[in-house]
Amino acid sequence: SKLTSLGQLEMTWRSRVYFHPLLVRVLHKSRLRYYGKPEKKLDMPYQAYFEVADGSGMMSMVLWNSLCPEWYNSVKVGTVLLLEQYAIKTSYPFKTLPTPGDSQMKRFATIEISLNVRDPPTKISIIPEEMVKPEWGLPEVKYRFITRSELDDLPNNHSCDVIGLVTFVGRAERARKREHGEDFWLYRWAHAIDGTSDQPFILELFATSQPDVFEHIHPMTYLVCTQMRVVRDLTENPSSTIYLTTSNESQIFITGWHKGQPYTKDTKVKNFIQWTKTQSEADQMKKTVIGGYYPFPRPPNNFLKY
């Protein structure tokens, strides 16, 4: 069929009612958002953002309502989609944006692709990777992996991806989303090492839309976290309280989930796997810890400072 590109859409969307099909690759995936309210009678008040790209650039794609339970788990980072009968809307200005792995890629930020059950009823098809042709010109998924030795030089809020061997994982804790609200964020702390430093990565992992992974992080698993943000305490001693926290587009993977993921081709990931082959499992097991209370950042040593 006759295809269009994201670049052409941006130029012609106002003058069209019908849009030709699109062929895109998913580069980023946000957590699932529930926006239900007691007074609104919506059956499935869900929404999820994806950043999709073709040869011309990258654009946001929004999955709405009952399409979320149907498609959210099947559409992964790296998945190639054929989209038909979609709508084009002006972009929502306050949404979070992931940092692209390819800094040269053009971002179309004024409009977004809207996928709905009706008006018009979108048709989504997943193209298996072995059927994807090079002449389609779809970009590869690129990452920004860092090693632990590089972390100390990175600025606050810098976006990166990490891989490490888990040595500590804390219990799940809750924090209120708002001061007097009923909603909570669920999170847990983890430490992971990669052999490039004596210090571990300190990771604040909020529950993303992957409960099956979040609940099964345990010592000695290979943990991959994408789209993490650097957090520095710029007031006290900057080097002592550097950690990484998840963002809206973070994805977490543990041993058993890595097969077929696009990051397995990344050089830093391959280097990490080589390093793990040189380690004794029994030695590492002795250093691992699980559960317990983990106060971080640490409170000051004396009460006056506190």
UniProtKB/TrEMBL annotation:
Gene designation: Radx_1
Gene3D superfamilies associated with the record: Nucleic acid-binding proteins
Protein name: RADX protein
Species of origin: Circaetus pectoralis (black-chested snake-eagle)
Superkingdom in the source lineage: Eukaryota
SUPFAM superfamilies per the UniProt record, alphabetical: Nucleic acid-binding proteins
Gene Ontology molecular function: single-stranded DNA binding
